[in-house]
Amino acid sequence: MSETITLYEHERASHRLSEAQSRRLASVGRGAVTVEPEAQHGYYSITAQNKVGTLMVDDLRVLIRPKIRPENLFLLLEVGLAPDAWRQEVFDYETSADLLPSLVAFYTRTLETTLARGLLRSYRHTEERLVALRGRIDTVGQFRQAGIQVPVACRFDEYTPDIAENRYLKAATRLALRVPGVAPKDRQRLLREVVSLEDVADVHVYPDELDRIASTRLNAHYQPALRLARLLLANLTLVDQLGKRAASSFLVDMNQLFEHFVTLRLRRALQGRLEVVSQLSTYLAICNQVQIRPDLLFRRKGQAVFVADIKYKLTDDARARTADYYQLLAYTTALDLPEGVLIYCMAEGGRPESTVTVRHAGKHLHTLAINLSGSPNEVAAEIAKAAHWIQERVGTAPLGGIVTDDNWGTGERIVRYVET
């Protein structure tokens, strides 16, 4: 019988552990939890970090839950579906506290809806030796073995479902079937989708291979399922065998989720007004020395006009970290910009100070906080407010129907946004 410990992000709790459990938890959970011995023998302080999900270590299961609403955790996944698409999974997560089965259920339903529209097919170039001629003769391949007429070296384009998108989905589906605790009905639905993908090769895929799949009009309906598949392939990292029971660890980095979400939403909101470039490499020093990589660079007609760095967590007193200011100052200096902004997820203590002016440099370092405690519509309004504020800083035309207060720090006025 495994023991379960439930924590929230950055929460610290005291638990009785064996010495072996504490060592293994500290090793396997590196980056997710820290484990420190307490004065009382046999007790350890376990502190959750920025990752949420399930961590399995031997017979110990640690569930780390986000401080934001479960509904908005699914929103941060940014899979391209309406908020009501994951309503059932949010309910399951709220009642069970285990993210992985809820996410698998969400992936299952999304995959089922995607493939119901028909399996995506495309032409794939093939070179093969066949008894009968198909396509064109591969002259070079044919004459590598002089005097042999058959089989014939052929080159042809085959219209097939065995393409990168379907291979990616099949690999994620096979992995999801290995997850314990998935509802039997979801397991049956996954097995049905494996059958529908029977003409697709079973190959190992890496999560980053999704970046090489170009998004087109033809595969646009595949994108939500592909994004969820990537989440499973990238984060379902550990499978242990506990006697006759299987256990899986699944952890999602909230820092990465928040950065990805804010980047995509700001890029969408500022489309046609500002170019939003993420993780662009440049240099702090002359002669291309000391590489830096701002989270967001805003450009107008190819010219950098504003810079931003995205940080998920504020300090406990809702203030920006000194190191974050140093980093932003380096970005504004290297890019020769008069100002930049730190974008945070709003802490329980409130919004951070709005602007700091650097002595002897005149640089203005702003802070914005995105409130993720409201409904998805309220979160969208927060992003719209941030986009409008950035536009005003660089003097671009307004986005449209944004109603906001003049001072970001108050956050009192209701924000409405109507895209033009």
Characterize the structure shown:
The protein has 420 residues and is α+β, with helices and mostly antiparallel strands. The chain contains eleven helices and 21 strands. The chain has a six-stranded mixed β-sheet with strand order 12-15-16-17-19-18, sandwiched between helices. The chain has a five-stranded mixed β-sheet with strand order 1-6-5-11-10. Strands 2-4-3 form a three-stranded antiparallel β-sheet, covered by helices on one side. A hairpin with a 2-residue loop joins strand 15 and strand 16 (303-311). Helix 3 packs antiparallel against helix 4.
Q: In percent, how helical is the residue content? A: 25-40%
Q: In percent, how much strand structure appears in the residues?
A: 25-35%
Q: What's the number of helices?
A: 11
Q: What does the main sheet amount to?
A: 6 strands, mixed
Question: What order do the strands of the largest sheet run in, or round the barrel if closed?
Answer: 12-15-16-17-19-18
**Uncertain segments of ≥5 residues (pLDDT<50)?**
238-246, 397-420
CA-atom Rg in angstroms:
26 Å
Write down the overall mean pLDDT: 83
* Anisotropy-based shape: globular
Determine the structural class based on helices, strands and strand pairing. Answer: alpha+beta
Number of strands: 21
- Euclidean distance between termini CA atoms: 57 Å
